[in-house]
Amino acid sequence: MIERIVLLGYMCSGKSTVGEALARRLEWRFLDFDVEIERREGRTVGAIIDAEGEDYFRAAESVLTREVSAAPAMVLAPGGGWITMPELLEAIRPGTLSVWLSVSVEETVRRLRTDTIDRPFRNHPDPAGMIASMLAEREPLYRRADLKLPVDGRTVEQAAFEIEQLARSRGLLLPTV
């Protein structure tokens, strides 16, 4: 039985926007890890990493993951680097459907340039090269997801609808909260 859905994917893959739409469709709660960590810390993810380092931020993601690992009727959107700690996916796996929102390098760069959120690599001299390298490193980790959904060319609502239909077709969803 699915009690949670976690969306995995690289930066700008749509985890937050698709997650919100999916939660709305399912009448579940939605948790964006970056937003929650920023709320708890009182500063942006960038400021946290600049001041404390990436390990500190990953530890905060780990704490949050363990807090929600048994929460029912939730759509979770951890940050793009969350999957670099694959033990966290295993920690929430019982009762969790994991969906990899797969996005191409070209689409990632396009989204990065138009996004209103302050993102890493926006001003990098070769964002495509850096993103391609990171995606290649992370792809084996993303492949641990239960489902892969390519999102290039899909709207937020199309992606949310498709995940909802896939989950419902398996007959695994809990009643809404």
How would you portray this structure in words?
The two termini are 15 Å apart. This protein is α/β, with parallel strands linked by helices and 177 residues long. 34% of the residues are buried. It has helices at 15-26, 33-41, 45-52, 54-68, 86-92, 105-114, 127-142, 156-169, and strands spanning 4-8, 29-32, 74-77, 96-102, 147-150. The longest helix is centred in the last third of the chain and has 16 residues, at 127-142. It has a five-stranded parallel sheet. The protein has eight helices and five strands. The model has no long low-confidence stretch (mean pLDDT 89). Helices cover 51% and strands 14% of the residues.
For the largest beta-sheet, the strand count, sense and barrel status come to: 5 strands, parallel
Mean pLDDT: 89
Order of helices and strands: EHEHHHEHEHHEH
Label the overall shape: globular
Alpha-carbon distance between the termini?
A: 15 Å
**Share in helix:** 40-55%
Which spans of ≥5 residues are poorly predicted at pLDDT below 50?
A: none
Task: List the defining traits of the structure above.
single chain, alpha/beta, 5 strands, about 50% helix
Task: Give a brief outline of the structure.
The protein is of the alpha/beta class. It is 51% helix and 14% strand.
